Amino acid sequence: MADKATQEAKVLKLCEEINTLLTVNESGAWKAGDLLVKASAIKVGGKTLTLKQLREKYLPNFAISYLSQLRSTAEALPPAKRKKHLKKGVTWHECEIARRSRNHCIKAEVATKEDSLDDYIDYVHINKGKTLSPKKLMRDRINAATVDNRKTRALQVEQLKKEYPNWMNNCHNLSCLDVLEKLEKESIDVVYADPPYAAFFKNENRKCAEPESKGLETACDSSTIDMALPLTLDIIRQAAKVLKPNGKLVLFQASTEPDRPEVISLLRELGLGTIFPMYWKKSQPQPSDFAIPFSHETERILIAGRNRKAFQGFYNGKGRTDVLDDNVIANALQYNMEYEKQPVSRSFYREVQRGERKYGDRHFFEKPVDICKFLLEKLTFEDDTVIDVCGCTGSMIEACIELNRRWIYCESNETNYNLGVSRIGEVMERVAGIKPEDDDASVSA
Ligand SMILES: C[S@@+](CC[C@H](N)C(=O)[O-])C[C@H]1O[C@@H](n2cnc3c(N)ncnc32)[C@H](O)[C@@H]1O
Q1: Which residue has the higher pLDDT, 365 or 330?
Q2: CB of 390 closer than 6 angstroms to any ligand 1 atom
Q3: Atom of ligand 1 nearest to the CA of 393
Q4: pTM attached to this predicted model
Q5: Domain that holds residue 189
Q6: Residue 403 and residue 334 share a domain
């Protein structure tokens, strides 16, 4: 009992000191943190006191979250480690922001536990004029990594252009309308169009993290309300010209606005009125507008041809359904669920950690390659020609290369073009036997 009393007296004494330090002198945070670490280590009656007990009994003037921060920062930076920072004039508050930011990064899987706290502290100290919160700091770090990666990627693309001029002629950093206009009439088997849909991020009731904060690219041309629909209609007009008699248009629809009357009537008017609507069930509902009782879990894909004949003879024995979900695709293509199920996925961060991907390598609009392959196998044969008019990350082109289809890639946005082209370059190298300059996928543009 006596021992318990002595131990309690020790805790009490330390807590009195903490009270004085924090009440009288705010700059005593470091010292208070150290004393809290000490007080929490003392065993009273064989047990150490929890922070909650310490606070209730001895430190009622302070919020538990504040005490917890004091203690955690003191633990993360014991006196010997903090010395060099203090020499540079770093404050306890800056160290605290840095520590919490590092925790956020680790939780979001954009940093590992091996990441040095010192880097975070230096960053906060250098930027001390700005208002920094731990989460903002995390976003800054991701953005910085993304910008660096964009620069590297642009250099790689320049190099690829020099090495493979012929092959690169099939990747067009142009508006698809300019490319479509130059193509021969009735020369294409599939026009694949995943156009931008307007105002995707403008919903104020949307309750989920902005994709940029997860290191995902969101660049997109023609994404305003007055541009998105006219572009889709122009693509349909051009597709009607360049498609072979049995050719098909694959048109992704906005999940919030499927089957717009302008789209359907133009397809009919231009003789592409045989339409098979498909649903891609993403297995990951989008939070979208929380004021509305429904969320969007599917995206609609219209597959339009001139007549039923255009679709006959293409059945490959796999999944005759209009729902593309994990089951269908898994059966048909050994769908890699872990990687492809969620275009916006945590697995991305793991890939970053393993050094297989870099920030900015993923785009918010990226479609899974297996969806592309699935569609290709239903609509084309080997050596058929596919044009991806809104190419972005190049997922359809990856599918084309793997399934031996000829291809044309168009993307007007430079950031996305660089993303797509460097991926296509990697795929060309990965798929054995295909050397860019040997490939005769040269549909003249
Ligand atoms: C929804 S994303 C396509 C995503 C793509 N299917 C993928 O899996 O990566 C639409 C893309 O179309 C591009 N775009 C917009 N207008 C365009 C145009 N006139 N010509 C070519 N690309 C365009 C945007 O910059 C954006 O990258």
Answers
A1: 365
A2: yes
A3: 9
A4: 0.67
A5: 164-430
A6: yes
